[in-house]
């Protein structure tokens, strides 16, 4: 069965015109998390320029005639420069091709999609943005960790773990984040986790606060390491990137909400690990 035949009859996807670039989020890994527009784009594109974090099963959905161009950027490994990738998109579009720029997660959440889009604007190349499920939400959900929960947090803060120089971002008020962000979700932070934990603890964060590292989220290789903020630096040495990191009370809900791990291991979930039901009944 083709991708197109699986769409609802009432679904009328936008036309993917020659000379256009679509910036598309592929989600955190599981091909089932693709949007209908993303799946439609894969079936229409003449060329797919894809990142390192795009699951191979998603690339298999591209039409057989499409050219696949790898443009992955991984820390510590030779990678194409961002400007070169952006200009390559311009070049391909000017050839009259339908260009799909496929990025893991969401292109506008630490995905540098905004930079690529600005380059397209600079060169008068038309484009469309197709959002995807970002790892800080979807990846954590596959690990049984909600980004928000009524009884624990009314806010969540997303932070990149490294700046354009590759170091810990120095333009952030870490003390304010330690005090004001009940739940922190870190992207690309494994390498600098020890320094980040020190900054948060110095700002008043509890060293005993729960932390979870979710590696290869929403894939068959997903693994989760739970620890505390005080031990997070040491635990990071056991983590295989790519990983998304959750800090805060929502990590404590994992024994009750780890639906994927329970299904894999054949175990029962623990009801109400934080005692919310007992508290509600007492109110």
UniProtKB/TrEMBL annotation:
<dbReference type="GO" id="GO:0004851">
    <property type="term" value="F:uroporphyrin-III C-methyltransferase activity"/>
</dbReference>
<dbReference type="InterPro" id="IPR003043">
    <property type="entry name" value="Uropor_MeTrfase_CS"/>
</dbReference>
<dbReference type="InterPro" id="IPR035996">
    <property type="entry name" value="4pyrrol_Methylase_sf"/>
</dbReference>
<dbReference type="GO" id="GO:0019354">
    <property type="term" value="P:siroheme biosynthetic process"/>
</dbReference>
<dbReference type="Pfam" id="PF00590">
    <property type="entry name" value="TP_methylase"/>
</dbReference>
<dbReference type="GO" id="GO:0032259">
    <property type="term" value="P:methylation"/>
</dbReference>
<dbReference type="GO" id="GO:0009236">
    <property type="term" value="P:cobalamin biosynthetic process"/>
</dbReference>
<feature type="domain" description="Tetrapyrrole methylase">
    <location>
        <begin position="21"/>
        <end position="232"/>
    </location>
</feature>
<keyword id="KW-0808">Transferase</keyword>
<dbReference type="InterPro" id="IPR000878">
    <property type="entry name" value="4pyrrol_Mease"/>
</dbReference>
<protein>
    <recommendedName>
        <fullName>uroporphyrinogen-III C-methyltransferase</fullName>
        <ecNumber>2.1.1.107</ecNumber>
    </recommendedName>
</protein>
<dbReference type="InterPro" id="IPR006366">
    <property type="entry name" value="CobA/CysG_C"/>
</dbReference>
<keyword id="KW-0169">Cobalamin biosynthesis</keyword>
<comment type="pathway">
    <text>Porphyrin-containing compound metabolism; siroheme biosynthesis; precorrin-2 from uroporphyrinogen III: step 1/1.</text>
</comment>
<keyword id="KW-0627">Porphyrin biosynthesis</keyword>
<comment type="pathway">
    <text>Cofactor biosynthesis; adenosylcobalamin biosynthesis; precorrin-2 from uroporphyrinogen III: step 1/1.</text>
</comment>
<keyword id="KW-0489">Methyltransferase</keyword>
<dbReference type="InterPro" id="IPR014777">
    <property type="entry name" value="4pyrrole_Mease_sub1"/>
</dbReference>
<dbReference type="InterPro" id="IPR014776">
    <property type="entry name" value="4pyrrole_Mease_sub2"/>
</dbReference>
<comment type="similarity">
    <text>Belongs to the precorrin methyltransferase family.</text>
</comment>
<dbReference type="InterPro" id="IPR050161">
    <property type="entry name" value="Siro_Cobalamin_biosynth"/>
</dbReference>
<keyword id="KW-0949">S-adenosyl-L-methionine</keyword>
């Amino acid at each position: 069965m083709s991708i197109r035949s699986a769409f609802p009859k009432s679904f009328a996807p936008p036309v993917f015109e020659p000379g256009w670039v679509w910036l598309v989020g592929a989600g955190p890994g599981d091909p089932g998390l693709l949007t209908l527009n993303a799946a439609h784009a894969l079936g229409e594109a003449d060329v797919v320029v894809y990142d390192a974090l795009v699951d191979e099963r998603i690339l298999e959905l591209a039409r057989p005639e499409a050219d696949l161009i790898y443009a992955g950027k991984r820390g510590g490994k030779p990678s194409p420069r961002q400007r070169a990738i952006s200009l390559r998109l311009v070049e391909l579009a000017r050839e009259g091709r339908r260009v799909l720029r496929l990025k893991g997660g969401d292109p506008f959440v630490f995905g540098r999609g905004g930079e690529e889009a600005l380059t397209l604007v600079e060169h008068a190349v038309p484009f469309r943005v197709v959002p995807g499920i970002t790892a800080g939400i979807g990846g954590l959900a596959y690990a049984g960790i909600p980004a928000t929960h009524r009884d624990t947090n009314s806010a969540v803060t997303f932070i990149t773990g490294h700046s354009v120089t590759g170091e810990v971002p120095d333009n952030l008020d870490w003390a304010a984040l330690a005090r004001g962000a009940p739940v922190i979700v870190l992207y690309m932070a494994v390498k600098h986790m020890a320094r980040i934990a020190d900054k948060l603890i110095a700002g008043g964060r509890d060293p005993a606060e729960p932390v979870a590292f979710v590696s290869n989220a929403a894939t068959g290789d997903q693994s989760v390491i739970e620890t505390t903020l005080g031990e997070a630096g040491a635990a990071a040495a056991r983590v295989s990137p790519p990983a998304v990191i959750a800090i805060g009370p929502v990590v404590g809900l994992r024994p009750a909400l780890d639906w994927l791990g329970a299904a894999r291991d054949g175990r029962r979930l623990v009801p109400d690990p934080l005692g919310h039901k007992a508290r509600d009944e007492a109110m």
